[in-house]
Every structure is written in structure tokens, then in C-alpha cells.
Amino acid sequence: MREVCDRLNMDSTTERICKAWQTVQGDLLHCYTLNIVEFHTWQAAISQNVSAQPKANPLSVYQFTNGQAIVNQRHEPVTLDVFGNELLCTLDGSRDHARLREYLMKRMNDGAFILRLDNQPMSDQNLAQEALDQVLTQTLKKLANAALLVA
Between residues 83 and 44, which one has the greater pLDDT? Predict the structure, then answer.
């Protein structure tokens, strides 16, 4: 309610917020008794853990591929880094971590992004694979924490 008051440039004192919240609650209850609104709960299939074959929320993938702002299942806007952008559309639940790392390695070799060590492009493939393992783990954890992975 404080955010609503701030957006409307209204006084956002605690007393005013409590009164506004009571009004909203009363109006919703009244609408419910008249069968105007229906209340229900819904638990999104969000996964806070990274599975062996991670899968992204299909709506987020759709939003990304269509150039829209990405919104997670908690209705929060999400901004992805380069690796999140690279991975999101590939997380369809069919690839394990090794195949995802191979995908990132291929994309790096194709010039989609550059891994750097001491501000120099990483040329050693073994070092690049180790770095991509770390990046993959970190990125998948970020995607899970951003509620973009599904169970």
C-alpha cells in the first residue's frame, strides 16, 4: 500500500495505509460474497534447486525470444547477463550439465562471447572448459534464484 500511495503522491502515513488496506479488504470480501470475484491459491512450479537437466519457464523463454522484458513466475522483472541470455533458450530439460557446457564452448568458439583471463582472450581450451564449468554453475544458480527454472 505504501508503494501505491507513493505512486499516487498520497500521504503514506501508517494510519492512512491501514485505513486504505482495510477498505481494499472490505471491498474484496464484499465482491466475494456477491460472486463477483473468486479467490484461489496457486503454487508456481518454481525450482530453487538446479536439477541434472534444468528446464526454464516456457513463458520466460517466449518473452526472451520475442524481445520482450522477461518476467518470472513471481511477476518480477528479470535482467539476464550474457551467459543467462545464452542458456535460457537451451534449458528445455533435455540437456545435462555436460551438454550445456559443450553448447557454451561451441558458442564461445563461434564468437558469441569471449572469455578473458587477465584481460586477454582465453586461448587454452582446458582453461576455457574449467572456466565455463564455473560460469555454468553460477548462471544456473542465478536463474534458479531468479525463479526462471521450473521443477
Answer: 83
